[in-house]
Each structure stands twice: as C-alpha cells, then as structure tokens.
Design the sequence.
C-alpha cells in the first residue's frame, strides 16, 4: 500500500476511536427531560431511562442522614403532583423552601425517584425586578446616599 493510503486509514481509525470515546463518556446527555406530571403518569414507561425532572422542594419533607450521606425529600409541581426523592450524596447548598430542584436519575418504585444528581436553582427572590418598574430618580437618590455615607 502507498504511504498516503496508510496515513488516511490511520486517521479514520483515530477519528473513529475519538468519536466512540465521546459517545461512551457522555451517557447522561442522552437522557430524557420530562415534566413531573408526565413522569408520574408514565413511571413504568421511563423506568429504564435516565431522566431529568424538576420540581419545587417541600421543606418539611427533608430527611438528612449524615451517617449514610443520604438525603430524602419530596418535590411538587404547580399542579401539586408530588414525587419522593432518594439521593445518596451531599446535600446541595441553598436547600430550603421555595427552591426549584433539578433531578437526574431513574424511577424506582411507585412515586419514588433515585437521584444521581441534585441541583438547586435560585429562588425567585434573587431575580431582578422588571425594567418597566425602574425609576432612575430613586436609583440616583440611593446612590447619592451611599456616597454621602462614605
């Protein structure tokens, strides 16, 4: 075989190996994103799938076991559908009432979710105000007041 042919075959083999490694290393990206209601209604259908779902944390349901490093809690959606979650890992920061929880994992038994990943989204109290309500004069007064205090 010619030298150029060998180089091209080698290049294809390397590119194929890189593609295979990328696909094998990212199984979570092939998961399904569902609404809480859809997951609860079709648990049997999605029992073998890696699922991403989110809900509002119910603070009084939080059970933290520091010896097992296990967190159990419930989340709900706007329609009051509730899902029980079991997570073996460290409790996320900002884990309190009013926080939206993003879960990735699998369904277990009825209405129970085994989370592999638990993330929180900041509550709405941290979001900025609507720019339609912005008053430049009030902003100027507050800024002047801060300058005068220094």
Sequence:
């Amino acid at each position: 075989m010619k030298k150029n042919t060998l180089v091209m075959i080698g290049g294809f083999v390397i590119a194929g190996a890189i593609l295979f490694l990328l696909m094998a290393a990212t199984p979570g990206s092939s998961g399904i994103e569902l609404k809480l209601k859809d997951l609860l209604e079709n648990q049997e259908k999605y029992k073998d799938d890696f699922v991403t779902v989110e809900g509002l944390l119910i603070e009084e349901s939080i059970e933290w076991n520091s010896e097992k490093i296990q967190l159990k809690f419930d989340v709900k959606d706007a329609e009051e559908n509730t899902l029980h979650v079991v997570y073996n890992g460290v409790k996320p920061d900002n884990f309190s009432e009013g926080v939206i929880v993003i879960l990735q994992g699998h369904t277990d038994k009825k209405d129970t979710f085994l989370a592999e990943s638990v993330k929180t989204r900041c509550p709405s109290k941290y979001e900025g105000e609507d720019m339609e309500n912005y008053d430049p004069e009030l902003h100027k007064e507050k800024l002047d007041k801060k300058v005068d205090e220094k």
Q: What stands out?
A: The CA atoms of residues 56 and 100 lie 5 Å apart. The chain has two domains: 1-25, 31-125. The chain has three helices and six strands. Strands lie at 32-33, 51-65, 70-76, 82-88, 100-107, 112-121.
